[in-house]
Amino acid sequence: MTMDIRLFPCLSDNYGLLVRDGATGTVAVIDTPDADRIQAELAASGWGRLDLILNTHWHPDHTGGNAVLKATTGCEIVGPEEVRRAAPLDRVVVGGDTVQLGATTLEVTDAPGHTLGHVVYRSAADHEAFVGDVLFALGCGRLFEGTPEQMWASLQTLAAWPDQTRIWCAHEYTASNARFALSLNDSAQMQAHAQAIFDARARGEPTVPTTLGVEKRLNPFLTARDAAQFAARRAAKDGFTG
């Protein structure tokens, strides 16, 4: 099985993600931060179609392009019920559901914490996961609606996936996350990883995707020993200015 994935910047720090099933040419976009930017990337890709929008949660920087893309392409909009708070939605999914992108099966996993209805999509066969604002490279999402215990449980669910799973998150926050991670762990391994991130950003290169194995070793929110330590670290990151 093969998946083609195109990552591109949107808005101030979002990423857009176009995903194509190699067997059938079926195309999805993961969230819709900017309809114009997505349409331009579709044209540049030469893929010639958009079949699905896969929303991870309801925030406007993830659903703002739903209506325009639906109107211009006729695509189906799939996501959690909470998306209807901000944008049109055709099909509601919850954890345990699957979505077919041509011959590719995407598993839906509930991941509350950032919002209460947040979901993530994963192709287990391809080791690719589209995680929205739950897990970031060296970070995790802010707790706008959920509790630390909910987010901790969501992160533990993701951490059970294979280490080679590529994590496609929705924002370029990695340099800031690396500075916070260094404040907790100044090991040689962390310093080298952080420097590689700083160098990539200085060159204008993305730091997404990361891998789950890297995050399990170095992400301070995955290395926390329990929900209480996670909560303390999340609170500290919210106020971190380093």
Q: Structural class from helices and strands? A: alpha/beta
Query: What proportion of the residues form beta strands (DSSP E)?
Result: 15-25%
Counting copies of identical and different chains, the oligomeric state is single chain
Count, helices: 8
Question: Judging from the principal axes of the Cα atoms, what is the shape?
Answer: globular
Share of helix among residues?
A: 25-40%
Number of strands: 14
Strands ordered across the widest β-sheet: 1-2-3-4-5-6
Characterize the largest beta sheet: strand count, sense, and whether it forms a barrel.
6 strands, mixed
**H-E order:** EEEHEHHEEEEEEEEHEHHEHH
pLDDT average, as an integer?
97
Distance between the termini: 43 Å
Radius of gyration: 17 Å
Low-confidence stretches are: none
Account of the protein in words:
The chain starts with a strand and ends with a helix. It is α/β, with parallel strands linked by helices and 242 residues long. The radius of gyration is 17 Å and the shape is globular. The protein has eight helices and 14 strands. It has helices at 35-45, 60-63, 66-73, 148-159, 174-184, 188-202, 212-218, 227-238, and strands at 3-10, 14-21, 27-30, 52-54, 76-79, 91-92, 98-101, 104-110, 119-123, 128-132, 135-136, 139-140, 166-169, 210-211. Strand 3, helix 1 and strand 4 (52-54) form a beta-alpha-beta unit. The longest helix has 15 residues, at 188-202. The chain has a six-stranded mixed sheet with strand order 1-2-3-4-5-6, covered by helices on one side.
